[in-house]
Every structure is written in structure tokens, then in C-alpha cells.
Design a protein that fits this description.
390 residues, 2 domains, globular
């Protein structure tokens, strides 16, 4: 009490001011704490809301993406219950191959019995009259054109040299023959000019020609068919390089079915020699889908190598090179190819049509004719026997 009494008015005023300031500071501190507490709670609530929003957004995006995938799947036919669009249908073509067509004669032969004289008497339609319907029903017919179509008089120094006027190329057109191999031992009988004349005559008739280093790729009912002609007689296995080069060329040009025609072998031999078999196999190994040959002037057997047919010799066909040939038998070799997006299928259908080089049995009238009955059976048996030699 003594101290209380000793306090002066100024002391008591200072003391009140002190307590007032103290209470203000305490209220200010509580206010700050309250503000931070509210701020912290607000931020916590905001964080929770943001996480929830992001979760919902992510779920929505996932759902939307799934919907998009289902839509895309439905468009492309992948989703359950929806079939994919149909693939392109298989393309089917039938190819016929025939042997030696010598549309001319040797100047030393009897002219009255020559093919050239028959042309003068009967015209271009006469020669293929009995087979043109067969060739008209297929999709491509390939002949070996052996001889020259030229006016040249510059005969090569050889035992036989064949020629006719360029207009005789129309025999092929009239017979529904679309292509011709020109790689053979009579293609230059009257020199290089005769070969060029022959090519020009074939061009005028719309006949696709190929041979040596000239190849062709034809569009046959939507199928690209590559055509290669190889002359083997002089160089034998040395032609392997040209064969490989030509195979690569037609493949680069889009060939889907590749056919290789060889002029090879030995005259009148019924069995292929080692070179024929080696080159035939090589052609298949390089991608050939069919191999056919000629030059022996008689039929040789057929081998199936790696699912590919090799017809070693098709004999003569419309052959002006002999009025009385020792063998009148010949065939039309046909193969039907099925081509899909995966390539040539190995379910080929082959067909042999037995023929006679003439409509007569005792001389050649240059009018190849299908045969039936005993003659057909004899040729079938001949082909079966000679195929067994291989």
C-alpha cells in the first residue's frame, strides 16, 4: 500500500499505456495466427480440390481416348463383331506356250510345197485355223518365232536359212498369238538387218517380242507377266549371267509371274542334257514361275522343280522348216496361275493339249491341229515316258 500510495499520477498513466500496448500486441499476434490458420486451411482445401479435378480430368481423357479407339476400331473393322474390309480377289490367268513357229522357208526348198506358197494360196487365217479358238480362250499365248521376216538377200553361210515377207507376221495375229521369243539360231539368218526387220514386222502386228537382252513385261488381265528369252546353244552355261540380269530387270519392272523361254538342247534328242537341267533349275531358283524350251524339234519331258514346271522341249508347231518332218507330234502347254497379294500361289493347274503339226498325217500342210482318241493317248504316254527320263 505504501508503494501504491507513492505512485504519482504520471506513473499510473504510464502503466496503463503499457498494458494497453501489451494487449494490442497480443491481439495483433492472435490476428496473425488466425490469418495464417485460415490461409493454411484454404490452401489445403484448394490442393484437395485440384487433385480431385485432375483425377476426374484424367479419367475423362482416358474414357475419351478409349471411345476414340473404339471409334477408330469400328472404322477399320477391328472391334469385336465388325469384319475387316475384304482383300483384293485373286487374279487368275491362263498362259499357253507353243514350240517352233518358222513362218518362212529356205530358198533352196521346193517353193510349191513351202509355207510361203501356202500363204499366197490361203492367206494368214489358214495356218492357225484349228487352234486359234484355244488361243483365243486363254489370256496369253507365247510362240518361239524361228526365222526372219525380211526382204534382205544377204543370206548367212549356213545349211538352213529361213525367211518370208514381213507381212507374214499377221499369221500370229490371226491366230490369237500375242507374244514371241526371238532368241534362237535362225533369228539372224539374213544378218542383223533381217533381225531388225523381223522385230519391226512383229511391232506392226502388235506382237510383243523378247529375247537375248530384250525383255518384256505385259499386263495380262491385271497381272504383270515378265517374259525372258535365252539362247543357250553357243554359250551354254555362260548365259547364266544374262539370265540373272534379265530376271532382275523384269522383277524391277514389277513382274508378278515370270516366264523364261530357252532355246537349248540337241536336235532330235528325247532327253534334256545337263546344261538344260542346270539352267532350268537356275531359272527357278532365281524366281521363274514357268520354264519352257525348244530347239530339239521333238518333245522332251516335263519336270516339276520346287513346284515350278520345266517343259524342256515343246517340239515344232507351225513349222515351215520341213515339209516331211520325222516327228509330227507336238503339244500346247498351258498353265493357269493364281496371283494374290502374297504372290503366285503354288496350286498351278497345268494342261497338255496334244496336237499334230499338220492337219494331214503324211506331209506337213503347216496347219497345227489338236488330236484326240488314240493319237492323243499316244502323245500323253510319250510325255509321261520322256518325263520319267528326267
Amino acid at each position: 500500500m505504501d508503494n501504491e500510495r507513492k505512485k504519482t499520477p504520471e506513473n499510473r498513466r504510464s502503466e496503463r499505456q503499457y498494458f494497453i500496448r501489451k494487449r494490442k500486441v497480443e491481439r495483433l499476434i492472435r490476428l496473425y495466427f488466425s490469418f495464417f490458420a485460415v490461409f493454411f486451411c484454404a490452401m489445403l482445401i484448394r490442393g484437395i480440390a485440384v487433385r480431385k479435378y485432375r483425377t476426374e480430368l484424367s479419367a475423362k481423357d482416358s474414357s475419351s481416348a478409349a471411345d476414340d479407339r473404339e471409334t477408330a476400331a469400328g472404322i477399320t473393322g477391328i472391334s469385336a463383331g465388325v469384319s475387316p474390309p475384304p482383300s483384293a480377289p485373286p487374279r487368275v490367268i491362263t498362259v499357253s506356250v507353243i514350240g517352233d513357229c518358222t513362218l518362212g522357208t529356205d530358198e533352196y526348198f521346193d517353193y510349191e510345197s513351202s509355207l510361203n506358197h501356202y500363204y499366197e494360196m490361203y492367206g494368214a487365217d489358214y495356218f492357225m485355223e484349228n487352234v486359234k479358238d484355244i488361243f483365243g480362250a486363254d489370256d496369253l499365248t507365247i510362240a518361239n518365232f524361228e526365222g526372219t521376216l525380211t526382204y534382205s538377200e544377204d543370206r548367212e553361210d549356213k545349211q538352213f536359212a529361213f525367211k518370208a515377207d514381213p507381212e507374214l507376221a499377221s499369221i500370229l495375229t490371226k491366230g490369237n498369238i500375242e507374244s514371241a521369243n526371238t532368241a534362237n539360231n535362225h533369228s539372224h539368218d539374213y544378218g542383223e538387218v533381217s533381225y531388225q526387220d523381223t522385230l519391226a514386222a512383229l511391232d506392226r502386228e502388235g506382237i510383243v517380242h523378247f529375247g537375248y537382252d530384250e525383255t518384256a513385261v505385259m499386263d495380262v488381265e491385271g497381272v504383270k507377266v515378265g517374259l525372258i528369252g535365252i539362247y543357250e546353244l553357243d554359250d551354254h552355261m555362260e548365259v547364266a549371267g544374262l539370265l540373272k540380269q534379265n530376271m532382275e530387270k523384269v522383277k524391277q519392272e514389277g513382274s508378278e509371274v515370270t516366264i523364261v523361254i530357252f532355246h537349248w538342247g540337241n536336235e532330235l534328242e528325247e532327253e534334256p542334257d545337263e546344261n538344260q537341267r542346270a539352267l532350268g533349275h537356275m531359272a527357278v531358283d532365281l524366281g521363274a514361275d514357268l520354264v519352257c524350251g525348244h530347239h530339239p524339234h521333238v518333245l522332251q519331258g516335263i519336270e516339276v522343280y520346287k513346284d515350278v514346271a520345266i517343259a524342256y522341249s515343246l517340239g515344232n508347231f507351225c513349222f515351215g522348216g520341213n515339209t516331211y518332218p520325222s516327228d509330227f507330234d507336238t503339244i500346247i502347254f498351258q498353265e493357269t496361275f493364281t496371283v494374290t497379294s502374297e504372290g503366285v500361289q503354288h496350286d498351278h493347274e497345268t494342261n497338255i493339249i496334244p496336237c499334230n503339226v499338220s492337219s494331214q498325217y503324211d506331209y506337213n500342210d503347216y496347219q497345227p491341229t489338236p488330236v484326240s482318241g488314240e493319237d492323243a493317248e499316244r502323245i500323253y504316254e510319250k510325255m509321261e515316258e520322256r518325263s520319267s527320263y528326267i
